[in-house]
């Protein structure tokens, strides 16, 4: 599900890349450099070259966004570390460019390997830096730190709170309030069910009592009608005699 949301949030064209933030994209020249390097890898006569380059650029840029937004603890990174990752990526693309052209499928395989290695390196680097920056015995690093979500440089070297996924102090209180409201809702539902049951049982009893009264009344009326009928028959018999 998370990958689906990431896909929906991805830019649909190169012009919208500027709205996607990740550690590597915080350098305004990053996308431009990667695009230029990718263009050098694909000969101009290759069919569908433009679409291929756009797709590869999207996949390359998405890695930083996906890793940085996958976990709050993977949000901060030393600027120098981000520069090292970008340098490594450019070097890898240069290596692919120095090879003899062997076709689109071979190129896509090489780029897939680079993306997988980049994702692994980026995740490992972010995780290691976060563990150090969020630890109690935090050791400060040289240079500024980057907030990958907003591309802001931070002067602090050690972190706490949301950057370290620390629990909100109000969370237990909110959980107690939520539990209390759930209990109230359950009592209301249970009380309503009991009241409805009581009404149904009482109503059923009243119906039964009314039915018995009606049956008694009808029996009495029937008996009177029978008596009247019998008397009338006797009178008729006496007249005939």
TrEMBL record:
Keywords: Membrane, Signal, Transmembrane, Transmembrane helix. The chain crosses the membrane at residues 179-201. Residues 1-22 form the signal peptide. Pfam families: IZUMO. The keyword Nucleus does not apply. InterPro entries: IZUMO. Belongs to the Izumo family. This is IZUMO family member 3. It comes from Molossus molossus.
